[in-house]
Amino acid sequence: MKAGEAAKAAGVTRKALRYYEPAGLLVPRRLDNGYREYSPDDVRLAIEIRTLTAIGLSPKETEPFLDCLRGGHASGDECPEALAVHDRKIRATDRLIARLSRTRRQLAGQLRAAAGEPFTHRHEPQEDTVLPQAVPLPDNLPAPADDGAAVHLPAVCCRR
Question: Which of 5, 93, 112, 155 could cysteine-pair with 119, CB 3.0–4.6 Å?
Answer without folding.
Answer: 112
